[in-house]
Design a protein that fits this description.
heterodimer; A: 115 residues; alpha/beta; Transcription Regulator spoIIAA; five-stranded mixed beta sheet; B: 145 residues; alpha+beta; Heat Shock Protein 90; five-stranded antiparallel beta sheet; 4 helices
């Protein structure tokens, strides 16, 4: 698993490459929480284009970020998730509280209105 | 064991071995003409079962996980066993969103995910002795979805 984060406008963009399981979710969580406060972001946008596999540890990781961001009035968005990953999110009902977008640009554009 | 083919592996109950378990099952079924989506479903279910053994069976302390992957008549049969603390209430554990470890950001979706991705899920557990998760899935040659 490979993880990269950067700030765009007031969003923390999180690009994950590879497999999200219990082992990798922990380091993802720590890095995001650190950077979210360090860069003073409001929203978190996950770029899941290169995520090849995700188990329920990924659900827990995303819900956890949603709970944190909610306090600052922010949003969590998932962009470019493949069908299998989306299926896992749908099982958990997470698609009711988190928005999914086809591509990163649209996701950032939508968040532009939440400043 | 009376299977057409099988592989039995034992590994230490540490989180780095979750990906190892996925690789073992993936290599094992590669002898069939399994579709990519089915393969991904199986790897994800194995990931859930092995994670359960590590986190819940052994509370992330020393232990060993045993995994049997077997093929018979086009059916993949997987057994993931830990010799840890066991599950006191299996029905409760299988309830969607129930987790005994919310502090670890567990979603409580492990058994639900296994159930949805595989054809069958059986959980056998005894307190103080351990837990065995049995998963099966028919291997179809082409992805239907």
């Amino acid at each position: 698993m490979n993880l990269k984060t950067y700030k765009k406008e007031n969003n923390l963009i999180v690009v994950i490459k590879g497999e999200i399981d219990h082992h990798t979710a922990e380091s993802v969580r720590e890095k995001i929480d650190d950077d979210y406060f360090k860069y003073r972001c409001k929203n978190i946008v996950f770029d899941f284009k290169k995520v090849s596999l995700m188990d329920s540890s990924g659900i827990g990781m995303v819900i956890g970020r949603y709970k944190k961001v909610k306090f600052s009035g922010g949003k969590v968005i998932v962009a470019e998730a493949n069908e299998t990953v989306k299926k896992i999110f749908e099982m958990s009902g997470l698609n009711k509280i988190i928005d999914f977008y086809k591509d990163l640009e649209t996701a950032i554009c939508v968040l532009g209105g939440t400043n | 064991m009376n299977y057409e083919n099988y592989v039995l592996s034992n590994f230490k109950a540490i989180s780095t071995n979750e990906s190892l378990a996925r690789m073992i099952v993936s290599s094992f079924v590669s002898s069939t003409d399994i579709g990519l989506n089915d393969l991904l479903d199986i790897k994800t279910a194995v990931s859930e079962a092995v994670t359960n053994a590590i986190i819940h069976g052994y509370d992330e302390k020393n232990g060993e996980v045993s995994m049997l992957c077997a093929l018979n008549d086009g059916i993949l049969h997987i057994e993931i066993t830990d010799y840890g603390k066991g599950i006191s209430n299996i029905e409760k554990a299988r309830t969607p969103l129930f987790t005994s470890k919310p502090e670890l950001e567990r979603s409580g979706m492990g058994f639900t995910v296994m159930e949805m991705l595989m054809d069958s899920l059986e959980v056998i557990s005894e307190e103080g002795k351990g837990t065995k998760i049995i998963l099966t899935k028919k291997i179809s040659s082409n992805d239907e979805d």
